Amino acid sequence: MITNGYLHGVLRILRIKSLLISKQKSCSIYKHELLISDGDESTTTEIEINDVAKEGEKANASQFELLKVLGQGSFGKVFLVKKIEGKDLGTLYAMKVLKKATLKGKQCFCMLMHRSPSSCKYNQQKFIFVSFFHSPVRDRIRTKMERNILAQIHHPFVVKLHYAFQTEGKLYLILDFLRGGDLFTRLSKEVMFTEEDVKFYLAELALALDHLHSLGIVYRDLKPENILLDADGHINLTDFGLSKESIEGDEKTYSFCGTVEYMAPEVVNRRGHSTAADWWSLGILMYEMLTGNLPFHGQNRRETMGMILKSKLSMPSFLSPQAQSLLRALFKRIPSHRLGYGPDGMTQIKSHPFFASIDWDKLLAREIEPPFRPTLTGTDQTHYFDPEFTKESPRDSPAVPPSARAHELFRGFSFVAPSVLEESREKYRPLNMRIAMPEFRTKIQDEYIFEEELGTGSYSMCKRCVHKATREEYAVKIISKAKRFYCDEVDILKRYSHHPNIVKIHEVYEDDNSVYLVEELCKGGELLDRIISQKHFSEREAAAVMMKLANAVSYLHTNQVVHRDLKPSNIMYASTSADVDSIRIIDFGFAKQLRAGNGLLMTPCYTAQFAAPEVLKKQGYDMSCDVWSLGVLLYTMLCGETPFATGADDTAAEILERVGEGRFTFSNPAWKDISELAKDLVQRMLHVDPVKRVSAKQILVHPWIVQRNSLPVGNLHYSSSPIKVKSAINQTYKALDRAAKPAPLHPVKASALARRRQLLKGGEVA
Prior knowledge:
Blueprint: E1 12-24, E2 27-37, E3 42-43, E4 46-47, E5 64-72, E6 76-83, E7 92-99, E8 109-113, E9 126-133, H1 138-152, E10 161-166, E11 170-176, H2 183-190, H3 195-214, E12 227-229, E13 235-237, E14 258-259, H4 265-268, H5 276-291, H6 301-310, H7 321-330, H8 345-350, H9 360-364, H10 387-390, H11 404-407, E15 415-416, H12 418-421, E16 448-456, E17 460-467, E18 473-480, H13 487-496, E19 505-510, E20 514-519, E21 525-526, H14 527-533, H15 539-558, E22 561-562, E23 571-573, E24 583-585, E25 592-593, H16 613-616, H17 624-639, H18 652-661, H19 676-685, H20 696-700, H21 703-706, H22 722-739, H23 752-759, E26 764-765
Antiparallel strand pairs: 1-2, 1-9, 2-3, 2-4, 5-6, 6-7, 7-11, 8-9, 10-11, 10-15, 12-13, 14-26, 16-17, 17-18, 18-20, 19-20, 21-23, 22-25, 23-24
Helix pairs in contact: 3-5, 5-7, 15-17, 17-19
């Protein structure tokens, strides 16, 4: 068999038949029948392109303002652009610019005999295109193939092409601007996803792939970098440069292309592959999202290919039986045995137990909430993209034009989406990305007046601010980009701050150095300060406070979020009246979505007096660490002292030893008037073993909470002065901060996954 790598000097014949059919007065279909002979494959395709040359509607580069650089590759750049004229004035798009001269392939010449479709006066007219390629022009063919595929696909989970046009030296694709960035960037930050996250992303990908397969298209390049997230968090497949069209039934294609680690065995051994190859790649992606590693990855490409063909799959034990079953079904080396193979393949995938909780109709209609919703800031639409690119000046530099013969290959490249020309609606709901955005706001100071400082920390400071137009007061948290990664905090607040006892976030601003979170102003001050300073606070009131806090924490935990910093200064009253309903949990700077399959977070985060034992021992921690912190707060509310620090003179070593051993007592005289139910709950919340510690949900059903209205209303007696208690707490925080700093977060490109990707840049072969 003659493979693509040995085709130098072999005559390749491209025969295109073009048929112009009158469809409607305002719409025509330009059909291409493409036959490519590579010596070992022969395929045919028909592509419909609507309104290719509707007068006055064609786009050009002057209609788009360059705003940012989103990415860059060997063939060109991707820009964030804004349409500055036309019906879609002000719409943000991603503009993919490719240099014709760098779409190398070797020498080629084309002989074309045609009549322009726009000039044809007949209802039916045949045109013959004959092109002879002395050597591969694969890159150029794939670029036009990508444009053709995008032009014919309309699906909720596939990126939409709005315009395509060309100049003498460049090709332009105008696509949806997907502000969530790519799945690879998110995977690099998270290391691993939960199975629920993976289930959602895989299900949407399966629907997208099934739609492509129904059109006879094999995607062939499924990997996290080619999966983008839109403004709502739904996936969008992009980059169709390696896709293959017109694969019907059991037909095969023999091209050796893609990223080696994601290739199916039948692609590696070059015996021909069909749409089933995409389902193998889906399994690779699933494995990588669940474990943070690739299942088949050797020291070099040859070793990796050998592993794909022969190595036994290593199945992590922490994966659920359903996840393991799906992986094994997708990793069948014989394509006909693989889940997804054949005409009923998608039905088999939908019915797999791993997807039992998925409502496929709702998923297709985009009615299921994604696990991650990108936060849209007021000033910058690109903070989910690599700063290495976004900080560049957006310039579309001139390009050296290719030879005139090569230029002919791109004849007919221009395209205007029907949705731009007419506001018609297709079978599927269009992607909700063409949002008319206001002009980018420049500075937060243009809208807010900054007042006095409210507090400061290691990574941020907080100030009171006043909105210039409404005169409403807010708190603005100013986070230094150089010191801390802020996206998790913003994302969590955007998604969960509607809970009545979680601080509300109003707006987010960003400049080169800082991120500004405009939040609800908590005028009532810190909860513990108010409690230990007032003379009238009862056990019944303490139970009411704990009920509110446990309810908020239970809500976060239900959504797989841990706060990780529930110290007293992060629990405040929004109202000056200190009403229990105005309690707010603030400062989500250390908050995180749980991601590992075993539920544990392995990034140590020390929070002084309120750090759980397993945190201090660096064993990892989960939701129970938040319960521990609430237990410390409850202990302090009831007796006026902290359980593990008795004063400002306690050393860090002494405090850490008590915390690590779970050593505390009820010997303080204040405890003699406290109910046994309260003591029981404190003991359960402060249990040194996180497995035996109560959950936030269990706190809510504990008799002390359930029967709170029958608890004593007499004032609690604090033996220590508020100043002494505050001093002991602060001294503990300072000691522990010096003893153990949280692990610094590094840029995405520093992650192991990113480094591996860098090594694999040569992995895509042609």
